[in-house]
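Replying to the earlier thread about multi-chain prediction with a worked example.

Input:
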Amino acid sequence: MNLDLLTVFKSSGFMHITPGLAIMWLIGLTLIYLAVSKKYEPLLLLPIGFGIIMANLPLADLMHPGEGLLWKIFHYGIEWEIIPPLIFLGLGALTDFGPLLANPVLIFLGAGAQVGVYITFFAATFMGFSYQEAATIGIIGGADGPTTIFLAAKLAPHLLGVCAVAAYSYMAMVPIIQPPIMKLLTTKKERSIRMKKSRKVSRLEKLLFPIIAVFIIVLIIPASAPLMAMFMLGNLFRESNVVERLTEASKNELMNIATIFLGISVGATMSAENFLRKDAIFIFIFGLFAFAVSTASGVLLAKLFNLFRKQKINPLIGAAGVSAVPMAARVVHKVGAEADKKNYLLMFAMGPNVAGVIGTVMAAGVFLTFLK
Amino acid sequence: MGTCQCNNRPNTVDEHLLHLQSIVLNEESQVDFAIIVVVSGIGSVFVGMSLLYLAIVITSLVTTKLEKDKKGKV
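Result:
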């Protein structure tokens, strides 16, 4: 009897716990704590945290190729490019391009913020990361979780977990990271600039935009098609006003389901050997650097515009060019309101904010074109 | 395309710094290709955004004209 109990114990997972697995459990529990207690990106960090624990349970083999449950979700969801485009469909259904269409010049601020992505790519290449790894690290600066995951799955799957956690962590920390950079690069006078009231955008313009945009962007950067096409399809659902059920399904049920599987899949890739890398700390530092440079480049581009424009732009809205929607726009509004309480920047900042989503997808498409 | 000649990929902090040093000192360089990617990337994003900008402006002009014509007929 004693012998049988010993055999059962020896064949259990307890005998196979390693320090690496224990550290990953702690990381998973920390993410769950941050999601529940601090409400840091809970929709993603909660399933990611639990996914990490699931993937690091000894003998469970949940990530065993061809057999494990988590492997199947990851393989068919992420590697087959299903989940990130579904998330983009939902994002499209949630996005109002009105502020961008009302002030089309703000679209360039969404492009300006991508400079950080490429500078970080360059710096990471210098530090010995492969081109594919450097691109995956650089795209963190776009502050767009699904795009980071989409690119990582194609270029550097071994970095997917680290980069996704870095991207979502920094997105959660937008209110902490961005304001000091914005204040450093602007004067109080600049932060107080009031924007001219936007014109009214017609329904026809909103309806035509997703169709025109998908043609232009996908013809220029075909590799961006999976994300961009779904993004614009979701937006077309929204603006058409004739498929309310599809719009609701895209932005609610479908997006929620996709988010669950996205979070679990990301967590599942974070095995001890993938995550506890000697250079993981570099990836987090570069991610932060990318995010900071993207913020700065957006603000500086807005200031550059002001040199040539009669109607000045509040340079703070350049910081919303990173695509953390709508957090970055809210931060812009808050920092602007600190300089002038009656300055209402939120709707203006939403323009570069949604342009930032487009810009990050384009940046990822360029990386795919060159490096896949 | 310039590619890194290192046999081993750097992992530790020291190895990364040594790699950086080797690039600076020996001109062992990935820089040319990286520059092409950076310039093409930023260029493509700005060209794409410029075309989108033009498309938005043209669409706005056309729709405004259409709406004016419609109102004129009424």
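Chain B touches chain A through 42 residues (CB under 8 Å).

Feel free to reuse this layout for your own posts.
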